[in-house]
Write a structure and sequence with these properties.
Elements lengths: L10 H11 L5 H25 L3 H24 L5 H26 L6 H25 L11 E3 L3 H8 L1 H8 L7 H19 L3 E3 L12 H17 L1 H30 L1
Antiparallel strand pairs: 1-2
Helix pairs in contact: 2-3, 2-4, 3-4, 3-6, 4-5, 4-6, 5-8, 6-8, 7-10, 9-10
Length: 267
């Protein structure tokens, strides 16, 4: 048996190093990663459902992955369980959940009608998602980033990009439309390319990270609003996703204007 220990290293230091390599991991570090892995499973399941023709369920799986993606970071921060490993795992899972899976679902559902042109749109969307996530990881290590910029994303975030890009499917299944003719499929492909551009661009978007506390006097109204939103999503899922998508797209000009105002005031 080969001994990997350096010649002059004492046995006690080798034993200590081995013990450090098998230290128990606290549960607070595992929980956020478990949530991320569940989201990854949903993204992969969306691909399988699309292959089987269950497009609506595939969309639901991607939407569920987006919800879990919003929770894992908050759980990690609440439990003080953030780690570099968790951040890298989250990015890899996001590429599958919000890059590969939506592109595959879109092509299987609608974009295949225009064949290669639709496939190019799906490929560009997946590549834009990968570029967006890589840039986000690099910007995390920027020590010179002003504090106010934490309230904005540079480029459309991957989960939002996935939800917004699926708008043609929401419209088709939410309003009982037939499979798109080639002319409509071309327009849908161009729409997906536009969302890919927003993901890869430096256009600012509201991050929503500052949303975390509700004034006590507005608590009842907030709870009723959340309950109503959940009921609408449960009863009218596709129509609710159309409303969410349009509201998000409408918020982009306001984010651009607010970002510009803050940037000019801080110079």
């Amino acid at each position: 048996m080969n001994d990997q220990r350096p010649e002059n290293a004492p046995l006690s230091s080798v034993a200590s190093a081995r013990r450090r390599g098998f230290r128990p991991v606290p549960l607070r570090l595992l929980l956020p990663n478990i949530v991320t892995l569940i989201a990854l499973c949903l993204g992969m399941t969306a691909i399988r459902l699309a292959m089987e023709g269950s497009i609506e369920w595939a969309v639901s799986a991607i939407a569920g992955a987006a919800v879990l993606d919003g929770l894992d970071g908050r759980i990690a921060r609440a439990l003080k369980g953030t780690s570099r490993f968790g951040a890298e795992l989250d990015s890899l899972a996001d590429f599958v959940d919000f890059g590969v899976a939506p592109a595959f679902v879109l092509f299987t559902s609608d974009l295949h009608v225009v064949k290669s042109f639709g496939w190019v749109a799906a490929l560009l969307f997946a590549m834009a998602c990968g570029l967006r996530l890589a840039r986000f990881n690099v910007m995390l290590d920027d020590p010179d980033q002003p504090a106010w910029r934490k309230n904005f994303f540079v480029g459309m975030p991957a989960p939002a990009g996935a939800i917004v890009a699926l708008l043609p499917i929401y419209l088709r299944f939410g309003f009982d439309m037939n499979a798109p003719p080639p002319g409509v499929a071309v327009f849908e492909s161009l729409y997906v390319m536009a969302i890919a551009f927003l993901m890869a661009s430096r256009v600012p978007h509201f991050s929503g990270k500052s949303i975390g506390r509700v004034p006590r006097e507005n608590l009842a109204v907030f709870l009723v609003g959340v309950a109503a939103a959940l009921l609408f999503v449960f009863v009218f899922p596709m129509q609710s996703l159309v409303a969410v998508t349009l509201a998000y797209l409408a918020s982009i000009p306001f984010a651009i204007r607010r970002y510009g105002e803050l940037d000019r005031s801080k110079q």
